[in-house]
Amino acid sequence: MKRARWIVSLAALVVLAGGVAAATRGVPESGGRFITDEQGRTLILRGFNTAGSTKGAPDTLPELTKADIDLEYRDMGTNFVRFLIMWRAVEPQPGVYDTKYLDKVAEWVRWYGERGYHVMLDMHQDLWGNAITPTGVAGNGAPAWATHLDGLPVDTDQPTWETYYLEPGVIRAFDHFWDTTGEHPELMDHYAKAWKAVAARFKDDPAVLGYDLMNEPWGGSVQGPRFEAGPLAALYRATIAEIRSVDPDGWIFLEPQAVGVNWGLPSALPHFDDPRDGAPRIAYAPHLYPLPLDLGDDYTAGSKEWTDRTIGWWRDNVLRTADRLGAPVLLGEFGLDMTRPGAADLVDRVVRLGEGMGAGMAYWSRDPGSWGPYDEKGKATPLVAAYARPYPRAIGGVPVDIRSEARSLTVTFDANGTGPTEIYLPAAGFPDGGRASEGEATWDAARRVLTVRTKTSGRITLTITPA
């Protein structure tokens, strides 16, 4: 047996062990809780991470234009963006916040807002920060002043970018941040206050849905439940308090540790109280990178079978965690090279997974290339056709079931009088718009949105077919 296949099989057994152990607890039927808009309607968010190109210079923003955003909407009807920002750019010096950088971010938010998008600001990090090596060849997120390696090495000759996490210097930088060394208790406080500065800047911006507190947290020398229930939970509690001191209404999105949880293993995140008046606005935002694909396999043959199993474990464990948190679910990242065999089938699989969970999603990422919706010349990749599906952008009630096909959409929900249901219909299956099985429907051809006003109470099954 080839070594790569052996690794996949062994890793799958590890995931299986975690999945079976977690399966001794019941799985909620669905998330049961949903992200809502200002009217109280359930939002089904669908979009992209914008974007990996922000990982360059300290204040780099996406290499996109207004025309790029308009093209994305025309082709796929997206209504959501997970917009990457960097701690190093927000707080370039201790306690000093770069208002010019935040103004640049605000300009992007305005562009998205004018097009009806919901923006989640994501404080992104990978491998701690670009100061982990003298030349900045790896890492993004944390500022240089918060990077303490204690002279420990970071070897730049790595087989994959993830293996940087195992370098002694990177581990020490994280250990200092989480204060497991006891030498830099100020760093988490700086991070939480940086988020306060961001929230203060955007609390009144209607396009900003909320804040993703940390991308793919890594515990350094502390891993697993000890990390999630210990240092990570402490950071989240402190940051929630700082954000709520200036913004009582924005949604706060929490990620689990990435290693293991991205593959389908359980998370140990505890419940978090939301000090705001009214219903909590804390959501769970895990990522999905099935282990067989993460190790280089395609979504075909035997690997497809294992991938589907790990996706099933991921779903069950995500719903258990969301139930413990009392939180709705948002899939913050998923994706793969769209030139690989089975890639479009995987996107279809994940979209249907989201429909079944009533969860929104953001594909990684909007950058041009084989992983994105368009290549370097602006030509659509297979992702565009796979992602362009009819879906309910906003539902005037609580979703029970969502099912899409190329030329039909069925949405079952318990109406609660919060407002009309808005449905995006792609041109490929609905060239002239759609008709609704009940209610009063209005077609906006420019936005490709069918607005349906139904009765304001009771269970409704709304079927949309081409006009």
Mean pLDDT: 93
Which blocks of ≥5 consecutive residues have pLDDT under 50? 1-24
Tally of individual helices:
11
Q: What portion of residues is helical?
A: 25-40%
Coarse structural class:
alpha/beta
Biggest sheet architecture:
8 strands, parallel
Proportion of beta-strand residues: 15-25%
User: Looking at the chains present, what oligomeric state does this protein adopt?
Assistant: single chain
What strand order characterises the main sheet?
A: 7-6-5-4-3-2-9-8
Distance between the termini: 54 Å
Number of E-type strands: 17
Specify the overall morphology: globular
Radius of gyration, whole Å: 22 Å
Please provide the ordered H/E string of secondary-structure elements: HEEHEHHEHHEHEEHHEHEHEEEEEEEE
Protein described:
With 467 residues, the protein is an alpha/beta fold. The protein is built from eleven helices and 17 strands. The N and C termini lie far apart (54 Å).
Compact description:
This protein is α/β, with parallel strands linked by helices and 467 residues long.
Task: Name some characteristics of this structure.
five-stranded antiparallel beta sheet; eight-stranded parallel beta sheet; 467 residues; 11 helices; globular; disordered N terminus; alpha/beta
Give the arrangement of secondary structure elements.
Layout: H1 3-22, E1 42-43, E2 46-50, H2 66-76, E3 80-85, H3 87-90, H4 99-114, E4 118-123, H5 168-177, H6 186-202, E5 208-212, H7 225-244, E6 251-254, E7 282-284, H8 291-294, H9 301-325, E8 330-331, H10 343-357, E9 360-363, H11 382-387, E10 391-395, E11 397-405, E12 408-415, E13 421-424, E14 434-436, E15 440-444, E16 449-453, E17 458-466
Helix pairs in contact: 1-9, 6-7
